[in-house]
Design brief:
21% strand; two-stranded antiparallel ribbon; 22% helix; 242 residues
């Protein structure tokens, strides 16, 4: 089951004609999305359409709004940036099933933070893509790479913002950052990986369960992130940047 397939099925039931959605991107199975946009063509939508559609959707999928846009708009190609956040918990008592990734490792978080500072900028991420052959090029611009710790000192967050992400790229990047934190690889090897000077000795992606697509930005859309995950996300002031 995919989110897109489930939503298209319910929209077909509600509107009584086939609905084909074009989403703002794709995520791996098990990865969450707190904000996701898709476009399609609708004849019309009643004022209570969202409420009625949500009653039919599975509990883990919600439609938040129906917004009119220009016919020439394309929500996949027009995105200015996408932001992913990865949540880490290393205390089993604090684990929230399916909401954050639990690791038993004792990470060196200063090393992870040092490694993340090398991410900013435009680079060829072919080495961090599962299927580089499907792209014309594998160059992406990492606009922001930040590392946070929750004020409770029990949850950590990696936030990556880029103009685009390749297939499997986020999980491979985070997985490699965690290898730096485990001190399995050095900062120097990480830097050579980013520059394409040394192939990855192993390709271990981060767990899907702790990864969230949290924001997609457009020049013509501005929507708040509506999240039911307050216990994990917390307010902005609950996090300290490392």
């Amino acid at each position: 089951r995919t989110v897109q397939g489930a939503l298209e099925d319910i929209l077909k039931q509600y509107f009584s004609y086939n609905i084909k959605l074009v989403g703002c991107g794709r995520t791996d199975a098990g990865v969450h999305a707190l904000q996701f946009f898709a476009h399609t063509w609708l004849e019309s939508a009643e004022a209570d359409a969202i409420e009625k559609i949500n009653l039919k959707l599975p509990n883990d999928i919600r439609l938040f709004d129906i917004i009119g846009i220009n016919e020439q708009s394309h929500l996949q190609r027009d995105a200015l940036s996408r932001t992913y956040e990865f949540y880490i918990i290393n205390n089993p008592k604090e684990q929230k099933t399916g909401m954050a990734s639990y690791y038993i490792d004792d990470f060196n978080y200063n090393k992870i933070n040092e490694a993340m500072k090398l991410l900013d900028g435009t680079m060829d991420f072919k080495m961090f893509c599962r299927t580089p052959g499907i792209y014309k090029n594998t160059i992406c611009e990492i606009q922001k790479a930040k590392f946070y710790i929750h004020k409770n000192k029990k949850v950590w967050k990696i936030r990556l913002t880029a103009n685009r992400f390749l297939k499997g790229m986020v999980r491979l990047l985070v997985g490699r950052l965690l290898e730096v934190g485990r001190e399995v690889i050095t900062i120097e090897e990480w830097q050579k990986n980013l520059l394409g000077e040394q192939p990855l000795r192993f390709r271990t992606p981060a767990h899907a369960s702790g990864l969230y697509l949290t924001k997609v930005e457009y020049s013509y859309l501005s929507c708040p992130v509506i999240s039911p995950l307050a216990k994990i996300q917390g307010a902005t002031t609950d996090w300290d940047e490392i």
